[in-house]
Amino acid sequence: MELTALTIHEMRKHLAAGDVSAAELTDAFLRRIHELDGRINAFIRITENQAREAAERADRRLREGKAAPLTGIPLALKDIFVTEGIETTCASNILKGFVPPYDGTAVARLREQDAVFLGKLNMDEFAMGSSNENSAFGPVKNPWDPNRVAGGSSGGSAAAVAAHMAAGTLGTDTGGSIRQPASHCGVVGLKPTYGRVSRYGVIAYASSLDQVGPLARDVEDCALLLQAIAGFDARDATSVDLPVADYPATLKNGVKSLRIGRPKEYFITGLDADVAAAINAALEVYAGLGAEIVDISLPHTDYAVACYYLIATAEASSNLARFEGVRFGQRVDRGDGLLEMYRNTRAQGFGAEVKRRIMLGTFALSSGYYDAYYLKAQKVRTLIREDFTAAFGQVDVILTPVAPTPAFSLGEKIDNPLQMYLSDIFTIPVNLAGTCALSLPCGFSAGGLPIGMQLIGKPFAEETILRTAYAFEAATATAERPPLPSAEPAVP
Description:
By secondary structure, this protein is of the alpha/beta class. Helix content is 38%, strand content 14%. It has 15 helices and 13 strands. Strand 9, helix 8 (273-288) and strand 10 (292-296) form a beta-alpha-beta unit. The longest helix is centred in the C-terminal third of the chain and has 21 residues, at 371-391. It is globular.
């Protein structure tokens, strides 16, 4: 039995039966990380000692009959999550050496279930990127083809799951940062509704857009992880106090008579032919399962990218002002005064993409330009949200591509920010609207690269998109397709 190839729900059965221990699972994943991660670069740091200690605690819980749903399950965390006693850098030089004194809420809720944390995962610096090439720790490589991007900004989270280096992971999604890498790496990734999962203890990029979510091998695993982290948290002012559904229990409810929307604005000129074919084939599968396919319109989609890159950068400009070398992280002080210390620290601490977005956001908020840019973008955001509200009056779920193309080559777009920003054209509207969406593997390109489809649900209807995804997965057996777990060396 190859332990790292098991899903979380399979691991739970073996742990409960005593066929395998949490310590054995943890050792298997740590070996896998040491064998493969030199070629993938998904991990920024491996917390080997802490993982083994957590596995021992989990085994005691199992022997005592006090196991929770994730007891003993080896997981990993995007390096944007604050973790007590473990360096947290957001993949940035400016936060090197920052060791938080507490856990964020999502992390704490997983700890409460005696999950095992294997380490912290690579990402685009401060979650700003679509390819995971904007990291102070180097790019993450796609396990399917190490010459391709893993997607961003949660590229390490997706690649670790795809390469069987973690049973599941947590990421964050501001404009597609869970769904896009999930699509490129052939795993399941869910962005919950804004307010469904606490952001307390998550280093902020754009506070009105950021959301925490799980990445996993299949839909059932995704549901188990979401179940563990969802729910109200008084420490997060944006957290919503609504009941949390039993996500695993509703997975098998099927899609008969479900209305699935096909928005014409997402099937555009420039959409890769293999992606279009995979999405259309998925719609046919759903029709065969008894769902009704409905053509709909989301008319303000064309404005989403411009709207997003005004709002997100403006919020980033405000949020990242706190990183100046005084209170935490790296300081570059040459003794020439406070202002120069600020300048030197930020100039050397932030990478090029982070600087670009801070400057864009500062300009959008500056005197004389606020109304022309930021305020206008907020008005457009309202129109985009109203598009989704109107569409959900006609359908239960919306099905679209996740990305216009499969994973592109490393270096292909890094010097062309506009082309890079357009990589998220299909995911950004969901964040602006604040609703939930899931990326699910639905096929492969002619070159053998994974393709994901996006299932968008009504606000706080995560159980609907999860059961919709589960029905497709069961009908097509996508969960049985191995995500290239070979240990072949990367091509230089």
